[in-house]
Hints:
Layout: H1 2-22, E1 72-74, H2 84-99, E2 105-110, H3 117-137, E3 145-151, H4 162-168, E4 170-175
Parallel strand pairs: 2-3
Antiparallel strand pairs: 1-4, 2-4
Amino acid sequence: MRKSLALIVIVMLAFNLAACGKKKVVENVPIAEGGSGDGGDGTGGVGSDGIEGSQFGPGNPDDPNDPLNKRVIYFEYDSPNLDAEGQIIAEAHAQWLASNPGTTVVLEGHADERGTREYNLALGENRAQSVMQVMQGMGVSGSDIQSISYGEERPVALGADESSWSLNRRVEIIYGN
Length: 177
């Protein structure tokens, strides 16, 4: 039993180290204080750079139902799978990115505080990879997408209850250039 547990821990650590080795350093990507590049509310607006949308990227600020205004995709507990709303948001951004080659995006994976640090880093990475797979499947170049996992390290809600945890289980879509 101890050998099996030790093997599982070693495999998880190896996975995390391999994932860290694949991450690319992203410079000059605006990130608002506290996380999401859109003030945390998922709505758009015209940024100081004059590009429509929050910070950078698409979105019609006059249409609150425009999925491009949503820059956060939420996940169920212990799951990297997109739900229907997450799929719609990911596809909308993918379609826009495919039509605007050269625009870069960073997918930041997050988890709630439950679980070990290593497990949550892997879960955050798997969530970001789920969104990346949708985007690449719709024609977005892999060179235009970066992913990073923060695990439980950057919560947007500090409570220890389901309403807080559900806000922390997310992937944030951050536009670059």
